[in-house]
Specification:
single chain; alpha/beta; seven-stranded mixed sheet; three-stranded mixed sheet; 12 strands
Length: 258
């Protein structure tokens, strides 16, 4: 069960919860001197959300096995992130059954696509309106199930844009322990609404978000990168909070090898 953090104030206000949460996600806990930006075009790495940490002590170390990358969510930038990582020697697995953008890299044999989406439960979900007979179905799988089916004991980098499912997915991988078999997690946090199956008042929701991320930290991870999307609307749970963007991309690296 998720350990809920103390309230930020005795009055349980939106202002206090939002202030604590935004400060927490805006300030990296460790400094990575070697931040790599897979997929970034030349000269654009400063404004690139999807970074990995390659500092001594934190970089991916795979030993005698292949380094594994899981990429969940829409394929963006024509798959440049995945292609770049594959060219660096990673075995890349892409999970995005709804994407209309395929990754075109016929010379790379180490990019694998799967008609599966990451979720905190396992089910079949239709990709278009149920009234359409042609509606396709996709499989939803938990991370631990995906790893078992692919025969992976360890995943070195997880990239995820889960379109507001991230909070329940993170809670699930913490609860079942699969987070302990991940080296780095880079994901988009959507703040404009509570997220799928996250209920409660606005202060309760933000306290829950904060508790989830503190549980990630308690699992041995540190925040190494925070990217606020200034091109996205400034909305936190339906209101403007100090011009904070609705969308952050957060990079977490495991520093405690428990």
């Amino acid at each position: 069960m998720l350990h809920m953090q103390r309230w930020a104030s005795e009055n349980h206000t939106f202002q206090a919860e939002a202030q604590r949460f935004v400060e927490y996600i805006s300030n990296p806990q460790i400094q990575c001197e070697k931040l790599k930006s897979p997929g970034a075009l030349k000269g654009s790495s400063q404004d690139w959300a999807w970074k990995v940490c390659q500092d001594t002590g934190h970089q991916v170390k795979c030993g005698n096995r292949k380094c594994i990358v899981y990429s969940f969510g829409p394929v963006i930038y024509q798959g440049r992130i995945e292609i770049d990582l594959a060219r660096q020697g990673y075995e890349v697995h892409v999970f995005d059954p709804s994407s209309k953008t395929s990754i075109h890299a016929p010379d790379l044999k180490n990019i694998h696509t799967h008609s599966v989406t990451l979720d905190w439960r396992e089910s079949l979900v239709k990709l278009s309106r149920p009234s359409r007979p042609s509606a396709k179905k996709r499989q939803s799988r938990r991370l631990t199930t995906i790893m078992k089916e692919l025969g992976h004991e360890q995943v070195d980098i997880v990239r995820a844009d889960l379109q507001s499912s991230e909070w329940k997915v993170l809670e699930n991988i913490i609860a079942d322990g699969s987070i302990n078999r991940v080296g780095q997690i880079v994901f988009t946090a959507h703040l404009h609404w509570s997220g799928f199956e996250v209920r409660g008042s606005n202060p309760e929701v933000i306290r829950y978000w904060y508790s989830v991320l503190k549980a990630v930290e308690a699992a041995g991870f540190k925040l190494f990168n925070s990217f606020q999307d200034n091109k996205a609307p400034n909305i936190v749970l339906g209101q403007n909070f100090q011009n904070t963007s609705c969308c952050f991309t957060l990079g977490w690296v495991k520093v405690d090898k428990r």
